[in-house]
Structures are given as structure tokens and as C-alpha cells.
Amino acid sequence: MGIKLIKISTVYFAIGILLGYYMSTIHSYDLTPVHVHINLLGWTALTLIGILYHLFPQLEASALSEWHFWLHNIGLPVMMLALAGLISSGNESLTPVIAAGATLTAIGVLLFAVNVWKNLKK
């Protein structure tokens, strides 16, 4: 799971960098919140979590790691696509979709935190 998360994080990194590049070439920074969240929650967080899972196999062995993986990797793309759509179109009906994605991501991150506190031992 740890290596899988690190590999997935590089996809988020590439997307975040390409989005930043796109914004800089068109001189429009409206999608900055999407760019930042993809880089923070996708690239940085998942890389660090992947390293922790790799270094501490007891974290990866917990069922919480599987729940975290799926909630994080379903919630984050849903949230970011809906946020990009809202920013680009002004379509306020996307707000509940953003909230749903954010909720899934947040629950996943909280499960990761519980996993660390419960299963990380010397």
C-alpha cells in the first residue's frame, strides 16, 4: 500500500504541476485553490503517508489503511473536479459535490490519524 500511495502521489504531483503551468501560461490564477489542494493533499500528504506505511508495516496491515486509501483517492478527485467546475462556470449546484468529496477526504485522513495513534509502536 505504501508504494502504491507514493506512485499515486506522483500522478497528483504531475496534475498539480501541469495545472500550475497552464495557469501561468494563460495568466489566469482562478484555479489556484485546486492547484494548491492537489499538491498538498495529493502529492505531499500521500507521499508522506506512503512513506509511513512503507516504514511501519503495522500501519499498512490495519484495515484502516485500506479505508483511508479509498476514501482519500475517491474524495480528493471528486472535490477537485467539482471545485474546478464551480470556479470555471460559477455553477453553485456543484457545492454539495465539493462538500461530499471534502467529507470523504476528511474521513479518510481522520482514519489515517486513528491508525497512527492506534497502531504505531516502537
What is the arithmetic mean of pLDDT?
A: 97
Please, what is the oligomeric state? single chain
Distance between the termini: 21 Å
Strand content: under 5%
What is the 3D shape?
A: flat
Work out the helix count. 5
Rounded Rg? 15 Å
Summarize this, please?
This protein has helices at residues 2-26, 32-55, 57-61, 63-89, 95-119. The protein has 122 residues and is mostly helical.
Q: Can you walk through the features of this model?
A:
87% of the residues lie in helices and 0% in strands. With 122 residues, it is an all-alpha fold. Helix 1 (2-26) packs antiparallel against helix 2 and helix 4 (63-89) packs antiparallel against helix 5.
Topology:
Blueprint: H1 2-26, H2 32-55, H3 57-61, H4 63-89, H5 95-119
Helix pairs in contact: 1-2, 2-4, 4-5
Keywords:
single chain; 122 residues; mainly alpha; 0% strand
